[in-house]
Each structure stands twice: as structure tokens, then as C-alpha cells.
């Protein structure tokens, strides 16, 4: 049996998030008898430098190295692959992840020996066996993998190959995936106190999406939607609770309520087993699937506290242009049903499309302001042109923007953590679609206004809110200083605020512990209103 190491570079994201893909594949290989180590750099307690990651790889001394790429970590991952290939040319390098769906050739050109283009479960054992049998010889490696479907590689002549079939087999029965063994990860970097277990309570129990929203790479991915069964999810929850003390489950499904049958069955089983007294849930769904009154009541009774609705736009023009038309009545009905059942409803506004104008953007804001009183939170995002979508493919000037070093620097700052900033500021600065000055000003107004509003709203419903105003003011003051020092130099910001950022994160987690309160029966754990950055920002990250 072999030593296999998987690495996922910093996302970047403000939210600690353990790679589900590496967790599943790592667990499969571990269960087969391999020694597996997964280093995930997406924790807020530490950010490993490239040199530190190289040292960790050296210490583990793997027989095979695997890297998980999402568009945002591609640049840093390619740097790592380059260093690894220089230092250990005999170790075969495997690359996979969502970025590989469209950019598989790019990874091979950056020295990955083999790329998994799509999902890995169906081929991982054959592929790993083949890659381990190469004896340090490129020709043998190519011969070993050439019959495996759904991969790509360069042969010894430098000719690019895609495995026998362009589209590899995907796992149709998701219940075959193992429960993730999180012990394989650098778990100590994620779990410092009890409530950090919230980061292990993330379950992706659905893959694919039937809808064609044109800004979303998910709509271009595998069309066939697959779900885990209710029994599988409940078994997984029990496992996470017994092994890691998880009591808050967040579903990463694109549309949790898409299958009415599964939603009904899941809720029914949760209530039958009184699991709503032990767990709280949050999920996201698409308003196209329309949450009925009965369904909303059932979700609430089963312990769902937050539901995020992917609305994106409210003007008729905007909805049609993003290919996500939903009637105003349907949107309002879903919001009303959820809210009247006592569930917190969040949503988002997506701006910055090539066709956006000042007038259209401001009209969206006006309409979102109208529904705002019914929502716990509206977050504004600026569209990120993702490979595989028309907003990337139709704009050659954007080619490989994610490999530009200057692009992600604001991400890992204190002010970014405070305001849960994603790529917005960088994208606005980049102005990829050459918007006019007045359109950019309108986008800025909405985006930055939303950041501040969202930040303030997080504590709006807290008891004794007055007590939070002083630390909150101080927090914002530090965020301002962080921003100013970042303007001077990102290195300066990192030196001044690196430790403070970790402290803030730790305090935030402790604070969340207080807000996830015990109910009167002493057993039931509930999320009380809006709780700290933790759940809120996790939900924010999953908006679709
Ligand atoms: S935005 Fe949501 S509903 Fe639309 S394609 Fe993406 S995952 Fe599906």
C-alpha cells in the first residue's frame, strides 16, 4: 500500500471549509489500505506558506501527490506543482477539482502528470494503482493510464491526450460515497474549540443542477441531478454527531428542496426520530422550485432555521438576461411561506454583468429594498467571470485572469474577514466589461452599501445589542486601519493584522457558542436568530 497526499491551497475564502471532494476520495483510498494525508489550507487559524506546505509534503514523503483546484486557488497550486516537480521529479502528480472541467489542458501544461476532468470516484482506485506503477518513468506512466476514461495527460512527445471518452462515468448512486473521515485532514488547524465542529457539519447531498442560469458554472456541469437518500443523510448526521459532536448541519446542495419526495421523506424521518431536538439545519434552494406553505412548515418543524433563496435579480429584464426567470408572485410566495413559518430567509443580488447599466442596477436595488423587510439579509455580489460561462468565454481579454498575482491580495486581510469580502473589490477595480464610470459608481454603491448593512444586521436581533456596539465599533475601526495599511502594502497589512485576524476568528467562534443556546428541555440546540459571522458567512458563500 502507498502513501498518498492531497493538498488544497487557500481558496481563497473567508470561511474555513474542508474539501468534500478530497475528503471522499481520501476516505476511499484510506479504506482500501493506503496511508492518506490531506492538507487543506482553507482554515482561518493558520495560512500555510508555500514553503511550509512543501515542508509538510517532505515530512510525509508521499508516493503520489494530488491537488484540488478551484479557479481561485489555481495560481498558487501551479506554483506548488512546479516546486514539487523540481524537488521530487519521481513523484507523480494528480490534479482534480471543479476548475479542471474546463481548464484541464492548462493544468497539464503546468506539469500535472494526470488530470481528472470530472468526478473522481468511479476511477480513483484504477487511476491511483496505474500512477503508482510508473517506476519514475514517464512512458510507463502514460502506458498505465491511457485506458482510463475521463482523464487527460501529455504523452512523452508532448502531445495532449484526453482519455478514451471525453465524458467519464459519473457516480449515479451518491449513497455509495463514504462518510468523510475528517481525521485524514489537518483537523487541528480547523478545530480549536467545541463550536468549530460547525465546519464539519457541511453536507453536499446533491450534485448537478437542472437550471440554465448563464452566470453559473454549475449550469454547465453535469446536467443529471443526483441526490443522496434521506436515510444516507441521516446516517451521515449520526456519524458526524457521534464522532465529531456536530449539531448544526449545513446543506451545500444547489437546490435542497428540488426533490419534493426526498425533502418530505427527510423531514418525516427527522421528526419521527426526534432528531430536530438534536440538530439544526440551514440550506439553500432555488425559488424556481417554489417552497409551498406546507413544505415551509415541515422544514421549520424539522429544525431548519435558515434558508437561502437564490434570487439574483428582480427586474424582468435582469431575470431574463441571466436566464433565471421567476415570476414575482412565485418569489414572494416562497419568501412569505418560509418567513411565516419562522425560518430566516436570506437572498442575494448579483450585479456587474456586461449588459448592466446604471439605471438597471439602481432599479434592481429599488426592488430588492421593497422585499428587504421580509428577509434577514440580502448580500450583493459582483459577478465573477468563471471559465465555462459565456461571461468568460466571450471575453478573450479575461483569459486566465485568475492567474494574475495581483488579483487576490485583498482576500486574506482583516477588513476582508470583517466585511466578508469576496472578489467584489478586485472585480470592480478590474472592470472586466468596461462599464461606464456611472455604472461602476452604481455597482459600488450597491456592493459596499450591502457589505456594511450585512455586517450591522448580523447583530441587529441580538438581545442587549447595545453591548455589542462598542466592540463592533472597534472592529470596524480596526478594519479601517487594516484597509489603510493594505493600501500601503499588502505585506504590511499581513504583518500587522495576521494575529489579530486569528484572535477575531476565535472570539467569533466563542460568541457563536453563546448564541447557539440550549433550549428549555436542556437537550435541544437551536440557532437563535442571526448568529455571528459563522453561519451567516457560510450561508453567504453558498449562494447560487
Ligand atoms: S445559479 Fe443555482 S439554480 Fe442556477 S444553474 Fe447555478 S446552481 Fe443551478
From TrEMBL:
<keyword id="KW-0949">S-adenosyl-L-methionine</keyword>
<dbReference type="InterPro" id="IPR006638">
    <property type="entry name" value="Elp3/MiaA/NifB-like_rSAM"/>
</dbReference>
<dbReference type="GO" id="GO:0003824">
    <property type="term" value="F:catalytic activity"/>
</dbReference>
<dbReference type="GO" id="GO:0031419">
    <property type="term" value="F:cobalamin binding"/>
</dbReference>
<dbReference type="InterPro" id="IPR006158">
    <property type="entry name" value="Cobalamin-bd"/>
</dbReference>
<keyword id="KW-0408">Iron</keyword>
<dbReference type="Pfam" id="PF02310">
    <property type="entry name" value="B12-binding"/>
</dbReference>
<dbReference type="InterPro" id="IPR058240">
    <property type="entry name" value="rSAM_sf"/>
</dbReference>
<dbReference type="InterPro" id="IPR051198">
    <property type="entry name" value="BchE-like"/>
</dbReference>
<dbReference type="Pfam" id="PF04055">
    <property type="entry name" value="Radical_SAM"/>
</dbReference>
<dbReference type="InterPro" id="IPR034466">
    <property type="entry name" value="Methyltransferase_Class_B"/>
</dbReference>
<keyword id="KW-0411">Iron-sulfur</keyword>
<dbReference type="InterPro" id="IPR007197">
    <property type="entry name" value="rSAM"/>
</dbReference>
<dbReference type="InterPro" id="IPR036724">
    <property type="entry name" value="Cobalamin-bd_sf"/>
</dbReference>
<keyword id="KW-0479">Metal-binding</keyword>
<dbReference type="InterPro" id="IPR023404">
    <property type="entry name" value="rSAM_horseshoe"/>
</dbReference>
<dbReference type="GO" id="GO:0046872">
    <property type="term" value="F:metal ion binding"/>
</dbReference>
<protein>
    <submittedName>
        <fullName>Uncharacterized protein</fullName>
    </submittedName>
</protein>
<feature type="domain" description="B12-binding">
    <location>
        <begin position="1"/>
        <end position="138"/>
    </location>
</feature>
<feature type="domain" description="Radical SAM core">
    <location>
        <begin position="195"/>
        <end position="426"/>
    </location>
</feature>
<dbReference type="GO" id="GO:0051539">
    <property type="term" value="F:4 iron, 4 sulfur cluster binding"/>
</dbReference>
Amino acid at each position: 500500500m502507498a502513501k498518498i497526499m492531497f493538498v488544497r491551497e487557500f481558496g481563497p475564502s473567508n470561511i474555513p471549509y474542508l474539501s468534500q471532494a478530497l475528503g471522499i476520495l481520501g476516505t476511499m483510498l484510506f479504506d482500501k489500505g493506503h496511508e492518506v494525508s490531506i492538507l487543506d489550507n482553507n482554515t482561518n487559524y493558520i495560512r500555510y506558506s508555500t514553503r511550509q506546505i512543501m515542508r509538510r509534503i517532505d515530512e510525509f514523503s508521499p508516493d503520489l501527490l494530488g491537488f484540488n483546484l478551484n479557479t481561485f486557488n489555481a495560481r498558487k497550486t501551479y506554483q506548488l506543482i512546479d516546486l514539487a516537480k523540481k524537488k521530487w521529479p519521481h513523484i507523480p502528480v494528480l490534479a482534480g477539482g471543479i476548475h479542471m472541467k474546463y481548464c484541464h489542458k492548462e493544468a497539464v501544461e503546468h506539469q500535472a502528470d494526470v488530470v481528472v476532468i470530472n468526478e473522481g470516484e468511479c476511477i480513483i482506485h484504477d487511476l491511483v494503482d496505474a500512477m503508482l506503477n510508473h517506476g519514475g518513468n514517464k512512458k510507463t506512466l502514460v502506458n498505465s493510464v491511457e485506458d482510463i476514461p475521463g482523464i487527460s495527460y501529455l504523452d512523452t512527445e508532448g502531445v495532449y491526450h484526453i482519455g478514451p471518452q471525453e465524458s467519464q462515468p459519473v457516480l449515479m448512486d451518491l449513497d455509495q460515497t463514504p462518510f468523510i473521515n475528517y481525521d485524514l485532514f489537518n483537523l487541528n488547524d480547523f478545530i480549536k474549540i467545541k463550536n468549530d465542529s460547525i465546519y464539519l457539519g457541511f453536507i453536499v447531498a446533491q450534485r448537478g443542477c437542472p437550471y440554465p442560469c448563464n452566470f453559473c458554472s454549475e449550469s454547465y456541469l453535469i446536467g443529471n441531478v443526483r441526490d443522496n437518500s434521506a436515510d444516507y443523510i441521516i446516517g451521515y448526521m449520526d456519524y458526524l454527531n457521534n464522532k465529531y459532536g456536530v449539531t448544526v448541519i449545513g446543506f451545500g446542495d444547489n437546490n435542497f428542496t428540488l426533490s419534493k419526495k426526498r425533502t418530505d421523506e427527510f423531514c418525516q424521518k427527522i421528526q419521527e426520530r426526534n432528531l430536530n431536538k438534536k440538530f439544526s439545519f440551514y440550506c439553500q434552494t432555488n425559488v424556481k422550485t417554489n417552497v409551498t406553505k406546507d413544505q415551509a412548515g415541515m422544514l421549520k418543524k424539522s429544525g431548519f432555521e435558515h434558508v437561502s433563496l437564490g434570487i439574483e435579480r428582480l427586474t424582468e429584464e435582469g431575470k431574463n438576461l441571466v436566464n433565471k426567470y421567476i415570476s414575482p408572485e412565485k418569489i414572494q410566495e416562497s419568501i412569505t411561506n418560509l418567513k411565516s413559518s419562522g425560518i430566516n430567509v436570506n437572498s442575494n443580488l448579483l450585479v456587474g454583468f456586461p449588459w448592466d447599466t446604471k439605471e438597471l442596477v439602481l432599479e434592481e436595488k429599488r426592488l430588492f429594498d421593497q422585499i428587504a423587510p421580509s428577509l434577514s439579509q440580502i448580500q450583493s455580489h459582483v459577478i465573477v467571470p468563471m471559465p465555462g460561462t459565456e461571461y468568460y468565454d466571450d471575453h478573450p481579454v479575461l483569459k486566465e485572469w485568475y492567474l494574475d498575482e495581483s488579483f487576490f491580495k485583498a482576500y486574506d486581510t482583516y477588513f476582508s474577514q470583517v466585511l466578508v469580502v469576496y472578489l467584489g473589490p478586485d472585480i470592480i477595480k478590474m472592470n472586466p466589461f468596461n462599464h461606464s464610470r456611472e455604472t461602476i459608481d452604481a455597482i459600488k454603491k450597491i456592493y459596499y452599501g450591502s457589505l456594511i448593512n450585512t455586517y450591522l444586521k448580523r447583530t441587529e436581533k441580538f438581545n442587549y445589542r447595545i453591548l455589542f456596539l462598542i466592540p463592533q465599533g472597534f472592529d470596524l475601526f480596526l478594519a479601517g486601519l487594516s484597509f489603510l495599511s493594505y493600501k500601503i502594502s499588502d505585506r504590511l497589512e499581513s504583518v500587522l493584522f495576521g494575529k489579530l485576524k486569528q484572535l477575531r476568528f476565535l472570539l467569533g467562534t466563542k460568541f457563536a457558542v453563546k448564541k447557539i443556546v440550549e433550549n428549555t428541555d436542556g437537550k435541544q440546540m437551536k440557532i437563535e436568530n442571526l448568529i455571528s459571522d459563522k453561519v451567516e458567512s457560510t450561508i453567504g458563500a453558498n449562494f447560487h
